[in-house]
Design goal:
Order of helices and strands of chain C: EEEHEEHEHHHEHEHEEHH
Strand order of the largest sheet of chain C: 6-7-8-3-9-10
Low-confidence stretches of chain C: none
Distance between the termini of chain C: 35 Å
Radius of gyration of chain C: 18 Å
Structural class of chain C: alpha/beta
Number of strands of chain C: 10
Mean pLDDT of chain C: 90
Mean pLDDT of chain B: 86
Number of domains of chain B: 1
Strand content of chain B: under 5%
Oligomer: heterotrimer
Largest sheet of chain C: 6 strands, mixed
Number of helices of chain C: 9
Helix content of chain C: 25-40%
Helix content of chain B: over 70%
Chains: A mainly alpha (330), B mainly alpha (309), C alpha/beta (250)
Structural class of chain B: mainly alpha
Chain lengths: 330, 309, 250
């Protein structure tokens, strides 16, 4: 089997990510393991959102809410285990099932209503639903309301894997990313993926040749929601904390930025996008330049904002368009 | 129930509703005519407040400050349109969302750079900084009353412009059938720039009026932007009438909900829980309303004729 | 109605904002025939196609297909009972390859598509019939080309190929020759001549030479009404038709 240059770059990236905990050990700075773990979780969420946006043309502006739901499952479980001594609520497998199927169920309801609308209306209604979930979290005093919930014990995986060990957690996250990448690869290339892509390309023709796109789109919406819920499960365990902020509409905007930065026409795009997004944040905010007594890095969004506009205007497919073998943007 | 309080809250609801309308009017036109999602509309609102605070500081008069702010925000809108947004009309909504999201980041950061991270205060002149008894025994802040008056005045003026003038005719034609303006041989670029500037000025007006009662701070544009988006979506994108009705509706629900839900919830929940839950629930009610409207009428309450073709 | 009739349209009505686009239209398409519809611009020909496929609802009247009232069937459902259409303005999956375009249409009639794992690219139950249809339309060599890279004439052919892939019993062709060069048109007429051996076709076309050489019967549509139906000879000699329509073109 021979690899194209692009596949080699992708593979090299995965190898670096696989070795990262050892690289940072060697460099003596484990801060970056945590940072990259966060990036990978966001990449998982962005990958799931790209099924909707990149392949399905469904610009969902509320995807972060699903991450929040998954994260709150862990938070609430830990809370009751800690406060009320309900041990089974700390069981990682029960949390996992609730996080995934709970989000899937919520995505089913939101999707069923939202997918009746088109275009801008779809963008807005998905955002409205995510804001409803956001305000739900803000309004529940028991679970910390605005301030969020500290998670005093991570999900108990019954000895299979110890999430308290940062390395084990990192590898769970990395492995999850690989699984989601492969899942997306299969999904997009399947009969189902064909319908999703076709419905983005030309919905009128899809109906004319006998497809009803709605049920396929709804299924995609549920799948994407469930994966985001899983990302939330990982996120809560990594941060030991969950707050309504993860569900805010601007967080959903961040996920879309990642997809655009990375390039939505490709499988790996969202991963590159998530890396680029958080790396840019790190990089721009540590620019050492000082002008007139003001440190430029402190005002990094002054550069990041226009950069986004430039990416939209001139690099439609983001990072992806700079990799060898890039598809020309239409 | 306290009837005077209810009356006051209804007035507050109108006041918020009219502010929302000022924002929504510009946004819905940009949406409707240019098919353009502009998330940065809230930034223009914020700029209105900051400009007004600065000009008021320079001139020592809120009124002169306000009068200077309007053309300033109009110009800013025109510049933003010409530099950043013009190229985006032909792009899809995703690109527009992204690029204008970038604009928000830029404006917030630029504001922090110029005015600093701490919010500003817009001092009101004596005659606005007092209360008026509309009904004996029910004092109401004069400035809020002024907002309501200005809001209605502008709404009326806008109605006249849209229904009676040539510009209005073009706007209406554009909102219902975009291709038609092109066919009429109108200078579309100029029309778009003009409409965008007008929308910006209205947003600036809303910002400078909100400044003295809310606070002038970074990020003030985002929360109100979301409410504004909800308003235009419920009203039907491109419809001024829809925007007006939806804005008042949202204003009333938000304000009245916030002040009376705690009392209602107190009946069923412990008071601490109720105090936290009430604002969240009244915020949720707005989104619930929107979801409900779209579930039943996917194009909003008053979709302009021909939209969707 | 006889068993010979595949499509029966009875008193069909459609109005837009008070304007009657389809005005009490009645028409019958017999099994196996090529039935052409001609008429001046704005006669409501495309509106009729949209009503037949269910893309837009009708405001009155009856459409029955193979003896069944299809009024309540959705557009995808009508595709599944065998009504296929091509579009006047080319409507393809531009970012798919030629083969993928046809495969997608085959897939639509190959059971449900809730199959999430198996690769679709090498599924011969799709590619075999798709390639056969491309061969039929003379596009086999372009199978792996990006659709956007096709010439206009080739896109028009693919437009028909996609419709054929749904295994139709009735083919609604909406100006298949629109914008084609003379050469391409002549080639397409040959292909349609071949297709009419196997399919019942309702053809809308402005190219009168093509219509009169291909059609078994012709209906003339003016302002949403069928003013005359008959064989090409009958239509050619119909005084009313000559005045209303042909007079301008001939």
């Amino acid at each position: 089997m021979s690899l194209t240059p692009r596949q080699m770059i992708n593979a090299a990236l995965l190898v670096i990510l696989a070795l990262l905990p050892f690289l940072t050990d060697w460099a003596g700075d484990s801060f970056y393991t945590g940072l990259v773990a966060r990036i990978l979780i966001l990449a998982i969420a962005a990958l799931s959102l790209n099924l909707l946006i990149g392949y399905g043309g469904m610009v969902s502006f509320g995807h972060a809410a699903f991450i929040g739901v998954g994260a709150y499952v862990v938070g609430i479980g830990a809370f009751h285990a800690f406060e009320d001594g309900i041990d089974w609520m700390l069981n990682g497998y029960i949390q996992l099932i609730l996080a995934i199927f709970g989000t899937a169920f919520i995505a089913l309801i939101i999707g069923a209503i939202s997918l009746r609308t088109r275009g801008v209306y779809f963008i807005m209604i998905t955002m409205a639903f995510s804001q409803m979930l956001y305000f739900t979290a803000v309004g529940v005093e028991t679970y910390g309301a605005d301030d969020g919930l500290s998670i005093y014990s991570r999900s108990d995986m019954l000895g299979l894997i110890d999430l308290n060990d940062e390395k084990s957690l990192y590898y769970l996250i990395f492995f999850s990313l690989l699984v989601v990448l492969y899942l997306m690869h299969r999904l997009v290339g399947s009969a189902f993926g064909n319908v999703i892509r076709g419905s983005k390309s030309n919905e009128a023709r899809m109906r004319a040749i006998g497809f009803s796109p709605y049920k396929y789109r709804l299924t995609a919406f549920v799948i994407a929601g469930a994966i985001a819920g899983y990302a939330g499960f990982l996120m809560a365990n990594l941060n030991d904390f969950v707050s309504p902020d993860v569900m805010h509409w601007t967080r959903s905007g961040d996920l879309i930025i990642m997809i655009l930065l990375g390039g939505m026409a490709s499988l790996f795009g969202p991963l590159y996008g998530a890396l680029a997004f958080l790396m840019l944040e790190e990089l721009l905010s540590s620019i050492p330049l000082t002008i007139g007594g003001l440190r430029v890095g402190e005002y990094w969004q002054l550069l990041f904002g226009p950069l986004l506009i430039l990416v939209v205007l001139y690099a439609r497919n983001g990072v992806d368009s700079f990799l060898p073998g890039a598809r020309k943007s239409p | 129930m306290n009837w005077l309080l209810l009356l006051e809250q209804i007035l507050n609801g109108f006041q918020l509703g009219l502010l929302l309308f000022l924002l929504a009017a510009g946004l819905t036109l940009v949406f409707g005519i240019m098919d353009m999602v502009n998330l940065a509309h809230g930034s223009l609102y914020m700029m209105g407040a900051y400009f007004c605070a600065t000009f008021t500081g320079w001139t020592g008069s809120f009124l002169i400050g306000a009068l200077l702010t309007l053309p300033a925000v109009f110009l800013l809108g025109v510049v933003v349109e010409m530099v950043a947004l013009r190229t985006l009309y032909a792009r899809d909504h995703l690109d527009q969302v992204m690029a204008t999201f970038g604009l928000i980041l830029f404006f917030n950061e630029a504001t922090r750079l110029i005015w600093g991270p701490i919010g500003l205060v817009i001092p009101l002149p004596e005659f606005l900084n007092q209360t008026v008894e509309i009904i004996p025994g029910a004092p109401y802040p004069a400035f809020r009353l002024a907002i309501i008056l200005v809001g209605f005045l502008v709404a009326g003026l806008l109605y006249l412009i849209v229904s009676r003038t040539k510009l209005g005719m073009l706007i209406r034609a554009g909102a219902s059938n975009r291709d038609m303006i092109g066919a009429l041989g109108i200078n579309i670029r100029l029309l778009f720039t003009l409409v965008f500037g007008l929308g910006a000025a209205l947003a600036g007006l809303a910002g400078l009026m909100a400044g003295p009662i809310l606070s002038v701070e970074i990020g003030m544009g985002e929360s109100i932007l979301i409410l504004t988006l909800v308003v235009i979506v419920i009203g039907g994108i491109g419809s001024i009438k829809g925007a007006f009705i939806a804005a008042i509706l949202i204003g009333l629900i938000d304000t009245v909900g916030r002040s009376f839900l705690p009392e209602l919830l107190d009946l069923v929940l412990p008071s601490q829980t109720a105090a936290t839950a009430a604002p969240a629930i009244s915020s949720m009610m707005i989104y619930l309303l929107m979801a409900l409207v779209l579930a039943i009428k996917p194009q909003g309450l008053f979709p302009p004729k021909g939209v969707g073709r | 109605m006889t068993t010979q009739d595949l499509l029966v349209i009875d008193n069909l009505i459609k109005h837009y904002d008070g304007l009657l686009a389809t005005d009490d239209l009645s028409l019958t398409v017999r099994k196996g025939e090529l039935h052409a519809i001609i008429g001046p611009n704005g006669a409501g020909k495309t509106t009729l196609i949209k009503q037949l496929t269910g893309e837009i609802p009708s405001d009155g009247g009856l459409v029955s297909f193979a003896g069944k009232n299809i009024k309540r069937l959705s557009e995808p459902a009508r595709s599944h009972i065998g009504i296929a259409r091509s579009f006047q303005i080319t409507s393809l999956f531009q970012d798919f390859t030629v083969l993928e375009n046809v495969c997608l249409a085959v897939q639509a009639h190959n059971g449900h598509s809730f199959r999430f794992w198996k690769k679709i690219n090498d599924d011969t139950t799709l590619t075999d019939p798709a390639r056969a249809i491309l061969r039929q339309m003379g596009l086999e060599e372009r199978a792996d080309t990006a659709t956007a890279a096709l010439s206009h004439g080739e896109q028009r052919q693919l437009e028909i190929a996609v419709a054929l892939a749904t295994k139709p019993r009735l083919l609604l062709l909406d100006e298949p020759m629109a914008g084609m060069s003379r050469e391409d048109s002549e080639k397409l007429v040959e292909q349609l001549n071949e297709l009419k051996q196997h399919y019942t076709i309702l053809l809308i076309e402005h190219d009168m030479d093509a219509v009169f050489s291909l059609a078994d019967r012709i209906s003339v549509l003016v302002y949403g009404r069928a003013v005359a139906t008959g064989t090409p000879d009958e239509i050619r000699n119909n005084e009313e038709v000559r005045q209303a329509y042909l007079g301008e073109e001939a």
